[in-house]
Write a structure and sequence with these properties.
With 308 residues, this protein is an alpha/beta fold. 36% of the residues lie in helices and 21% in strands. The protein contains 11 helices and 11 strands. Strands 6-9-7-8-10 form a 5-stranded mixed beta barrel. Strands 5-11 form a two-stranded antiparallel sheet. The longest helix has 17 residues, at 129-145. The N and C termini lie far apart (49 Å).
């Protein structure tokens, strides 16, 4: 194992999802089926705005990048106004978390090739932001000590949800960190029950890693995609080149198609008590609200019958 002097941490916020499962609810709240990360589901801030506020004490706006879809810009621009304009990376369309992560990673690699980056989905709920940041710092410490590792956050499942991804921890490498035995992405209900019984953690898809290391692993497994995006994104402001490249890209999931194949390079930090949920369904949101003793504001008569 090698060691490295900790470099300034960068942040990458993934905001390119379409959130189709929750669009009936966002339509009810806003009058339009907008992606959930841009919707103010409960308070004055959207999930994206909450994400930016949550990570601000960790990483300044100057070192925070966000990736969005071109058709989301009318919604995203105002919410991303705290970031410098050059830090907003626009992809032509959603191609799942594979291309959605590679595109901003390549942009960051050109600006800071030796950077360490923390990756954050923009559409998750976290009840305890301070505790969450503490676990991200713990992951960053692990990467500083061993730059070849990718450190992920996992949290104890509250139920066996088939809509979540799971990480099976292996050997303990610290008080709250483990090697990774396997991934299980959105299993069938029976399998979800089995992996939870075996001690699996929910995969928060929050990870800390060296940019060059993650790109090297992705290149080994998805060489054509990485090469195509690298070529398209070196053509300055030629948006047509990137659009043509995206039109030919298959949608693929970064956890399933990369991380699941490099488990020997991964660590998982068990993040206890952060109150995490990906809020991918109405049921997941209402479970969270129930633990907070709150009644969903949209529950009025049968208005939500189609989305329950």
């Amino acid at each position: 194992m090698t060691t490295s002097t900790p470099a300034p941490l960068w942040a990458l916020v993934l905001a390119g999802g379409d959130g189709t499962r929750l669009q009936p609810l966002t339509r009810l709240i806003t009058g339009a089926p907008i992606p959930k990360q841009y919707c103010r589901l409960l308070g004055e801030r959207s999930l994206l705005e909450e994400t930016l506020a949550r990570i601000a004490p960790l990483v300044p706006a100057a070192r925070t990048l966000a990736v969005v879809n071109s058709n989301h810009l009318p919604l995203a621009s105002t919410q991303l106004s705290p970031l410098p304009a050059r830090n907003v990376i626009v992809q032509p369309q959603n191609r799942d978390t594979g291309p959605g992560l590679l595109l901003p990673l390549l942009a960051l690699a050109r600006r800071a090739p030796d950077a360490t980056v923390a990756v954050f989905p923009s559409d998750h709920y976290v009840a305890d932001p301070a505790a969450f940041r503490g676990y991200v710092r713990r992951a960053a410490d692990l990467v500083a000590r061993d730059p070849d590792r990718i450190a992920l956050l996992g949290t104890n499942p509250e139920w066996a949800d088939p809509g979540y991804g799971y990480i099976l921890p292996g050997t303990r490498v610290g008080s709250d960190a483990f090697t990774v035995r396997a991934f299980c992405e959105k299993p069938q209900p029976a399998l979800a029950e089995q992996v939870v019984a075996r001690g699996a953690l929910w995969n928060c898809f929050v990870m800390v890693c060296r940019v060059d290391r993650l790109l090297a692993l992705a290149t080994a497994l998805r060489p054509r995609d990485v090469a195509a995006l690298a070529v398209a994104t070196t053509r300055g402001g030629d948006c047509s080149a990137l659009g043509t490249t995206y039109a030919d890209l298959a949608a693929w999931n970064f956890s399933h198609d990369v991380l699941a194949h490099v488990t020997a390079d991964l660590l998982v930090v068990r993040a206890r008590g952060i109150g995490w949920s990906d809020w991918g369904t109405v049921g997941a949101i209402e479970r969270t609200l129930a633990t907070l003793g709150r009644t969903p504001p949209w529950r009025s008569g049968d208005r939500l019958a189609a989305t329950a």
